[in-house]
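Bumping with the actual sequence this time:
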Amino acid sequence: MLTSVDADLMRVLSDPLRLRIVTLLARETLCTTHLVAETGAKQTNLSNHMKVLREAGVVETEPCGRFTYYKLRPEVLAGLSGQFAALAGSARTAAGNKRACP
C-alpha cells in the first residue's frame, strides 16, 4: 500500500523539470552548471527544484570546490517502483473480483 511519504514523492516527481533532472542524474552525476545548461532553466529556479529533490531524499549533494554536484539516490526510486509493482500484482490477482451492487 502506498503511504503518504510515497504520495509526497510522487508529487515531487510529477513536476516536468524535476522529472527531467532525475532523468539526467540517472545517467551521470552533474553540477548545477551542467543542469542549467541541459534543462535551460534559470539558476535560481533550478536551485529551488534541487532543494525540493534533496528534501524528498531523491538526490544527495557532493561539494567539489566552488561547485555542488548532485547524485541520484536510486534506492528511493526503487522503493517507489516496488510499491507500484505490488499494486500491479494485487490488481492482477483481483482482476476477477467484482463487488455486487446492493
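The C-alpha cells above came from a reply further down the thread. The radius of gyration is 18 Å.
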